[in-house]
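FIELD: query
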Amino acid sequence: MAEEKFEFRHKSVLLRECIDNLNINPDGIYVDGTMGGAGHSFHIAGRLSDKGRLIAIDQDKDAIEAGQERLSTYGDRVTIVRSNYSFMKEIVRGMDIDGVDGILLDLGVSSYQLDNPQRGFTYREEDAPLDMRMDDRMAVTAKDIVNDYTENELRKIIKNYGEDKFAPQIARAIVRRRERHVIETAGELVDIIKSAYPAKELRKAGHPAKKTFQAIRIELNDELKVLEENLRDMIDILNDKGRICVITFHSLEDRIVKNIFRECENPCVCPSDFPVCVCGRLSKGKVISKKPILPDDEELEYNSRAQSAKLRVFERIV
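FIELD: result
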């Protein structure tokens, strides 16, 4: 049987809302830090003049190939870089660019990554390998985490990153199973997770493996740490009135973005009873979206994966 070919596609979540909130200047410089299938990038580039520029970043080689094809119509207006968005500041500075006018981050897993069993992100394909690498140049895979982490380490990541109340039972079940043989596939891991769940919980809506797979993916790709350690730097490279739009898909990411945006708007740490600020910390701008922007009913109707998406926007004021 011929190997099934998967096209790198991704329905761009909150597309109109992102484009509107970026306030695109046709002659400006923009960065898409998570290009993916180039959906957002395509629409940003389409609003730029020949003087404008888009820098599109992604660490996934399949995304790079798809982006090169889809964005080729824009020629030199677009520069594609294979890297993690954590290196955005260095990438921009390396191009002799002092500041950019807008940044977009879509922190979701692409449809291609979810639908291609060989990428190992899905819990719906029994024979899928336990991979989950956003960048296949990484040496460690999800299989290594499942088979090598201690029970305590597994419990912590499933509890903290998956927010699963059955984390202790799941971690214990994984360790017991791997004592017999190496856990190789998504199907094996799903069976283990199900065996750790109470029967009444299995009858509830939602897949029992979703939270554990999310936790392992976040741990493997260091997703929360990368976001928390680099979001401030991204705000720093924005020009005056430049905006950053961040789309998150679970509460852990959203909480990080919300807190950092608030801190950058009001960094003062002086006691509330001080008549004036003496700490000397200056605001970097303002939060545009006091509450997260959510997909409308129309989008949810044609893209179920937008269900948990939240957009937050910050504007730099120099």
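FIELD: remark
Confidence is low (pLDDT under 50) at residues 1-6.
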